[in-house]
Amino acid sequence: GEDSGRVVGYSDNYSAETQAILEALRKVDVCHNLHIVSDSLGCVMRANALKGPRDPRILKGACRVLWTRVAALLLARRKARSHTKIEWVRAHVDSGSKPKSMGPHRCACGTAPCNPGHWHHQGNSLADTQAGLATCMGDLGDPDQVLVGESLMAL
Fold it and tell me: At what angle do helices 41-49 and 64-79 cross, to 10 degrees?
């Protein structure tokens, strides 16, 4: 499914990508397999490294509230024995500029150099377009979520 609107709270690319990962995890039942693709290498690496909602790495960095929830959902998915794959896709491969090296990191499209026509890149271009349009819209989601804090849940 698609949602449109600005992310709640402070909005930069990293927090928007983190929010998108959280929303994908929230919308798919923990018993179903899930494949998430993001063009934020930092978010992909962080999500794949988290061990649980009390992982000390969450305290060192931005978006602690979001990452605590992401980690809790990833743990719930592991306990349910569902498969969650979170991969990085190189952004803007159709821009014509030569991409800088990403070291050992491999794009989800699986080709080198990247194929701009691959569905991962087509989907990323569509997501970037939607994100650009959302900057002019109202907030996405529950505005009270900002007040929840860093707990796994609020009563």
Answer: 50
What is the rounded distance in angstroms from the CA atom of residue 2 to the CA atom of residue 9?
Answer: 20
CA–CA distances in Å: residue 135 to residues 8, 12, 90, 140: 12, 11, 22, 11
Entry pTM: 0.78
Q: Distances in Å between the alpha carbon of 155 and those of 21, 22, 42, 145, 152?
A: 24, 20, 31, 12, 10
Distance from C-alpha of 39 to C-alpha of 44, rounded to nearest angstrom: 8
Whether the CB-CB separation of 117 and 111 falls below 8 Å is answered with: no
> Which secondary-structure segment (H or E) carries 20?
helix 13-27
Query: Of the candidates 24, 35, 18, which has an alpha carbon nearest to the alpha carbon of residue 1?
Result: 24
8 Å CB contact between 45 and 51: no
Q: What is the pLDDT of the chain when averaged over all its residues?
A: 82
Give the Cα separation of 91 and 12 in Å (integer). 16
Residue at 13: amino acid letter: N
Q: Give the pLDDT confidence of 57-82 residue by residue, as tens digits.
A: 898 888 899 999 999 999 999 999 99
